């Protein structure tokens, strides 16, 4: 056995143990678990002692998902922009990489700004009931 291969033996053993443990838990829960069917009332949602009137899984408006995606988009922008802003001064000291890093960040912000303008034109930020097409 080559020395490169022997380095992966502990990882292989860990994978085998994890699979065996998971399979063992599934088999044990099947063998030792309760048999039979539960009544339907046991599977209903319980809310403050009242029976549910409406279905548990209601439909969401598409507007909800648009707002969620815009939040993720601009949240990721801050995640990339904040560390860059923290080291901005030290990045500009290097004459070779300073302008490249600055223009790449301006390009990133420009692309996000175009997306922002597009969402604004489409009416994604209007909180009314009717969205523009």
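-> sequence recovered:
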């Amino acid at each position: 056995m080559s020395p490169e291969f022997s380095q992966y033996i502990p990882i292989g053993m860990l994978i085998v143990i994890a699979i065996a443990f998971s399979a063992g838990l599934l088999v044990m829960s099947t063998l030792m678990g309760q048999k039979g069917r539960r009544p339907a009332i046991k599977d209903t949602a319980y809310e403050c002692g009242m029976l549910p009137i409406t279905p548990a899984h209601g439909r969401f408006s598409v507007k909800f998902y648009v707002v969620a995606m815009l939040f993720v988009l601009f949240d990721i922008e801050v995640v990339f922009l904040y560390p860059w802003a923290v080291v901005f001064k030290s990045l500009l000291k290097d004459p070779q990489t300073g302008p490249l890093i600055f223009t790449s960040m301006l390009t990133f912000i420009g692309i996000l700004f175009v997306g922002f303008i597009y969402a604004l034109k489409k009416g994604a930020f209007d909180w009314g009931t009717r969205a523009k097409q």
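The chain has two domains: 3-43, 62-122.
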